[in-house]
Amino acid sequence: MLDGVNSKPDFDTMAVHAGREDLVELGLHAPPLDLSTTYPARDSRAEAARLEEFAEGARPPGQPVYARLDNPTVGRFERALAELEGAEQAVAFASGMAALSACLLATVAAGRPHVVAVRPLYGTSDHLLASGLLGTRVSWATPETLAAELRPDTGLVLVETPANPTLREHDLRDLAIACGEVPLLVDNTFATPVLQRPIECGADIVLHSATKFLGGHGDVLGGVVACREGFARSLRQMRFVTGATLHPLAGYLLLRGLSTLPVRVEAASATAHELATRLAEHPAVLRVHYPGLDPLRPRGQLRGGGPLLAFEVAGDPHAVIGAVRLITPAVSLGSVDSLIQHPASLSHHIVGEDDRRNAGISEGLLRLSIGLEHVEDLWADLSAALEAGAARRAG
Ligand SMILES: *Cc1c(COP(=O)(O)O)cnc(C)c1O
Question: Do 330 and 274 share a structural domain?
Answer without folding.
Answer: yes
